[in-house]
Structure formats: structure tokens, C-alpha cells
Amino acid sequence: MFRVYAVALTSLAALFALVAGVELWSGLTPNSRLGREFAWMHTPPDGAMAPQLAALVIKDHFDLTGPGGARVTSASFPGKWQLVYFGYTTCPDVCPTTLQTIAAALRQAPGVRDRIAPIFITIDPNRDTPAVLARYTKLFDPAIIGLTGSDAAIRAAEAAFRVTAIKVPEPGSQAYLMNHSSFVYLFNPHGKLRGFFNQQMTAAGLAGQLRQIVS
Hints:
Strand order of the largest sheet: 5-4-3-8-9
Distance between the termini: 36 Å
CATH architecture: 3-Layer(aba) Sandwich
CATH class: Alpha Beta
Strand content: 15-25%
Radius of gyration: 17 Å
Number of domains: 1
Order of helices and strands: HHHEEEHEHEHEEEEH
CATH superfamily: Glutaredoxin
Number of helices: 7
Mean pLDDT: 81
Helix content: 25-40%
Shape: globular
Structural class: alpha/beta
CATH topology: Glutaredoxin
Low-confidence stretches: 1-45
């Protein structure tokens, strides 16, 4: 668990460094365009993180394989908001906990859940086939769409979302875990980041943000 949190903090630090590097701090003031658009984040709920920073470097872009082997891209959900999370099915802790939180939040936001496509992208394509993902996501909510793909396709998606994922072999065996950043991204139907949440979010907090943002 410590390693997962360490990777998450490292990923967030990288976001801040990238933003500072392009000298766009003027766009983050409350009276700026970005500041007005994300005004709800000035008093963030538990687990919410400033998307006006992340939006500068995070892109809603993927070209992967979904249920039944169908091709699924970031353009496959016209008119839908996308709630995206990266993880893997054999994750012992943070992934199932986060998916449970997402599923509970969707149940607590019935007025908007039909407008949201919840997406789970694996960081472990060698083990997470479409069939494995389909069985796994149904344990949480039938609406959650599991996506996998080739190593190259997964790495491209990770790069677009600024996800960090590192394979960690178990000593003395062929088993392994995956250390990874753990954020939940909310994109509007135009592919623009509108929410960015960390592991501290609660189902009630996420549901409240979904009701407030999705309109």
C-alpha cells in the first residue's frame, strides 16, 4: 500500500512540475478563464484535486479493446461523460476499493448516472483479457466498462492520462504486483477534464461532485 501511495504522490508532483515548466500559472487564478470554469474546486470536497492543473497535461485519449473484443476509443461514447480509472484485476487493495467507491457513487447519483460512462482501463494487459475484465467489473457495477489492449496501446493510454505503472516481481516466483498512480478522471462529452479525484474520495463526496458537475 505504501508503494502505491508513493507512486501516486510522485505522479502528482510531476503534474505540478510540468505546469510550472510551461509558465501557465496566470491561468490558475480565480478570475481567469480556467479559474472560473473550475470555481467549484476552490473549496474542494474530500479527495478532489485541482483539474485546472491536470487539464494542462492530461488528455482523454485511448484506442483499446472492450467487451467481446470490440474496438473502443475515447470517441466511442458520444454525448456521454467519461469517468475513467486505471488499475488491474489482481490488485489486492486500492483498485477494488476505488471501484467500490465509484459504483456506490453512481448508485447515489441516479439523476446523472445514465449520462456517465464509467471506464476501467487495465495496466496489466498480459493477464487482463476482455473476458477477465468483463467478469471483474460486473462484481462492482454492470455499467463499468473494462478495457484492455496491446502493451503499446496500454502504454499510450497511460501516457495520455499521465498514469504511472511499474511491474514489481514477487521474490522467488513468477508472480508480480503493479505499483501505479491511482486517480479517477471525469471528462465531459467534449473530452475536457472536469474532475480529478484521488484515493481519499468517498462515495458520497464523488456522488455530490457528479451531481454538481454533470449537467
